[in-house]
Amino acid sequence: MTTDHDSDRQVVVQLDGVHKEYGDLKALDGVSLEIRAGEAVAVMGPSGCGKSTLLNMVAGLDRPSAGTVRVNGHDLGGLNETGLALFRRRQVGMIFQFFNLLDDLPALDNVALAAQLTGTPAKQARHRALELFEELGIADRRNTYPAALSGGERQRVAVARALMNRPALLLADEPTGALDSRSGEQVMDLLIDLNQIGQTLLIVTHDPKLAHRCASRLVEFADGRVARESALERQL
Amino acid sequence: MSAVWRASRAAVKRRRLQTVVIGLVVFCSTATVLLALGLLDAVSNPFDRAFEKQRGAHQVVLFDAAKVSAGQLAETAGRPGVAAAAGPFDQATARLEKSPPGVGSGAFRVVGRADPAGPVDRPELRDGRWATATGEIVLNEDGDLVRPELLGSKVQLVDGPELTVVGVYSSMSSSADAWVTPEQMAALHPTARQMLYRFDAAGSAEQLESGLASATAGLPAEARTAARSSASLEEAFSGTAKAYLPFMTVFGVLALLVSVLIVANVVSGAVVSGFRHIGVLKALGFTPNQVVGVYLTMVSLPAVIGAVLGTVLGAALAQPVLRVAFQGVMRGTAVVEVSPWVYLVCLLGLPALVAVAALLPALRAHRLSAAQAISAGSAPRSGRGLRVQRALGGTRLPRAVSLGLGQPFARPARTALTVAAILLGVTTVTLTTGLTSTMVQYADSGKRDGGASLDIRVGRAAFEQTEPKLTDRQMEALLRSLPGVERVSAQAISQVKLAGYQQSSAGFFLRGDQDPGDIRQIVEGRPATGAGELVASPTFLSQHGLAVGDRVTLELEGRRTTATVVGKSIDGDARFFFSTWATLLELEPSAGAAYYDVRLKPGADVQAYVDAVRAAEPGLYPGVVDDGNLAADTVVSFASVFTVLLTVVAALGVFNTVLLNTRERRRDLGMLKSIGMTPRQVTVMFVTSMAVLGLLAGLVGIPLGMVAHRVLVDNVGSVDFPAVMKDVWHLPELSLLALAGVVIAVLGAYVPARSAARLTIAKVLHTE
Ligand SMILES: Nc1ncnc2c1ncn2[C@@H]1O[C@H](COP(=O)(O)OP(=O)(O)OP(=O)(O)O)[C@@H](O)[C@H]1O
Ligand SMILES: [Mg+2]
Fold first, then answer.
1. Which residues does B361 contact at the CB level (< 8 Å), separation at least 6?
2. Is the N or C terminus of chain B more exposed, i.e. has fewer CB atoms within 10 Å?
3. What is the predicted pLDDT for the residue at B233?
């Protein structure tokens, strides 16, 4: 359900006729999509329909074969590799099914890293990371290495890292896919809280429960295309 | 097709780049190893090989014919320790009245022998045949050129017959200057008998001495007049070569080490990085042995191809390189060639090395369970590595740099091998630059200033040349008067005896302008200027037990004079010393110059000068002298070849390490990129990870190379390098060298780091 109030909000993501081909295979086949600030959009669909590909386009990790991708006013097509890296640093945060933490850094340093890449001094970066750890309730795990963290804890560390540079958009690819139901719940709660304080979310998931709990809008994907869009009533 | 073969083929296909790197590294390494082994083989063997082929004499002993009978000497063949003996042969020392050019100067040892066969010393035929009748003579030629014009030429002995040269032979034992039939020998009134011995034990100078003592025990002590051992022959044989053979040995050993290290690193790295793949194979139901089989096949394929091609390249390079290396060094029948075992070692050894390098980690994978193997695919954690990473994270360094600095700690074994390879590379570069610098100065010290240098010989009837009509002094004046001349000196050479020594030495006596080049060659003391002064080479002085400041008595045909050693030259022949004309006049008042050294002004017309000399005095024979220093050139060019090869191999090793690291860290890399690491930061990270190793290798490798350089130049027996030539290291060179390791590392790291930076990693982020 789109309200007038929603349409006043700034457009954060705007995809226009985005195609992505891998050889003969059409991973995305003309996707147009708009996400406004403060929205929480869930993308669902069968395996291989192009959900992760879509996320990569929005994150600037990959380039479309055709069409335009604009995120927070930046036309990603106009950016070179370095430009895309700088864009990712500032505009988006990403979390993944398999966390993707650096195994040889303790949790806190994994998170601080995101700020350090932008040149923030170590001390300041660790300070900011610790604030996030406290907010996410994992402050006591800050010196633990990823291998010794539970799945839910790892995902919360990954969320902290994604939020480090205060991104306009948080992207999540099956954030609960590798978690047991209890840890999954914790991560869902976290996402809901974040959305409630205004964080724009784009979540790819196979889990209807995740979609219905966290998202305000559902985008159903099939064969690289948006098959259906519907507003969701949050089931808290 | 077996499952192993199919899986290996698929693995090779999927890892084309890695396969190519293995093949390339094995290729370069094989070529390097072949050159290195070939060199080591050639350095150690040519004398021995040729010597053994002729059943060379361990001792050539001369007896006074008046004091010991032929029968007594023949009995010595059965003495304990004597493995074989030949002789006694009668020997006469003749002087030549007339001989073909280039044959015999001074005393000429003629030995009567019926044939060149026998249990000891079998001179090898070079040209013609052995002497079978009186009036025939066979020459011993130790040069490496066959001179057909010698056959049929005449040798006229002083107070003796004229003999016709019917053959040219070469004796590695140097048992005579010429041979005649025993009947002809009788007519030459021999005063000495020659015995040739081979001993059971001949490994050291002491054994040669005790063998001689045992063989001649019981004979009158004063009967033995001279003995020459194979040790001294070998010394003489490789005299010049010794100046730089140690260098080559060191380069050979370095090349071997670097090649082996890199091959081990590249191959074991390939297997370790395949652990995850191994886990998958196991999960598919491959038995542990099949897994090992897959990996051995996978690395052996490029290894065998690389080894074969490398052997071909090495073989093609070896002959010309060795020829250059031994130019002007060879004597007699010694042949420089690469022994067949070297090819065999390269063809079989390198693939075997590859197999062993692959087997060790593969066996580890063999023991791992499928699950362990899959998780071992990501870098293993080590406690110290983690602490380092953490400490680095807190530094003020840019994060890409500190991440790069931490990388080497994740894989300590691979890091150690990589560092070792760069280290040896840096050591080689340091050693080479040092040697080059020393050798260039050494070569320069021998260089004469100014224009062309001419060696003008005085014609001698004995050599079938025109005798000059002008006197010695007139000829010198003539040479000075012709246009273009800068300096002229006259020289005479005489066989002079030093009182108290058995063998005579060749004295070079000089008159006229001293060449500044000669003066530069003096490393201790000063040049000889006045009467009774001489200078000599380090080997001459050490063989005579002399030092600068010592006095010696010179004897020439009954006349004596004393002389003081006033200087030591940088290098030179152990049989020569240099003195002044005034000294010669004391010994030989009527002496005349044998040749003149002429130095022209820079840019003067050499041909015009030569023509003018010939026109004015047909009895003068001018020749142009090449100032080049062959030994120095050889060392420099050889060192450069090895440095290039080793730098390439070391850089390939780094390339491979970074390639493996980027492969293994694809996931980390993907994550870093997803949080905004720029391509430049990625490149910086990987290049830093190797540059720090390069720096480390530099800090250790440079002192190592400096020590190696010092040890080498200090242990060249025949060249006495002065301190200035040894102190080649100064701050600018050192700081440049410190960069060498970094440069090798950065060279190797840059390309894979760049491609890692460009890698699209979207895919790896979404999959486990
Ligand atoms: N780098 C690539 N090269 C070739 N094909 C690719 C690549 N990435 C994705 N594809 C293909 O594109 C299609 C869409 O892939 P994508 O990962 O977006 O699917 P998905 O919807 O995320 O699936 P899942 O739910 O299983 O994660 C698939 O058929 C996939 O095989
Ligand atoms: Mg997906």
1. B268, B271, B272
2. N
3. 64
Q: Pick A122's closest partner by Cβ from B394, B674, B762.
A: B394
The rounded distance, in Å, linking the Cα atoms of B242 and B236 is 10
A224 pocket-lining for ligand 1 (C-beta < 6 Å): no
Domain end, chosen from B338, B373, B408, is at: B373
CB contact under 8 A, B393 and A112: yes
**Cβ–ligand 1 contact at B767 (below 6 Å):** no
Q: What is the pLDDT of residues B133-154, one digit of tens each?
A: 888 888 887 655 556 667 777 7
ipTM: 0.86
State residue B378's pLDDT score: 47
Task: Give the domain extent around B738.
Answer: 380-447+630-768
Is B89 found in the same domain as B42? no
Structure token pair of residue B411: 């894989």
pTM, rounded to two decimals: 0.66
Question: What is the per-residue DSSP string for B703-736?
Answer: HHHHHHHHHHHHT-TT----HHHH----HHHHHH
**What CA–CA distances, in Å, run from A165 to A129, B220, B398?**
10, 103, 17
Q: What pLDDT shows up at residue B379?
A: 44
Contacts with B667 from chain A: Cβ below 8 Å = 100
Is the domain of B544 the same as that of B592?
yes
Q: Are residues B566 and B711 in the same domain?
A: no
Query: B600 with B472, same domain?
Result: yes
Q: Is the CB of A52 under 6 A from ligand 1?
A: yes
Among B165-179, B219-233, B505-519, B535-549, the range scoring the smallest mean pLDDT is: B219-233
Say if ligand 1 is within 6 A of residue A48 CB: yes
Of B601, B627, B653, the position where a domain reaches its end is B627
Domains and CATH numbers, chain A: 10-231 (3.40.50.300)
pLDDT at B627: 54
On average, the pLDDT of chain B sits at: 78
Q: What is the arithmetic mean of pLDDT over A108-115?
A: 90
Tokens of B605: 């017309």
Same domain, B136 and B152: yes
Q: Which residues of B touch A (CB under 8 A)?
A: 378-379, 381, 385-386, 389-390, 393-396, 398-400, 406, 410, 667-668, 670-681, 757-758, 760-762, 765-768
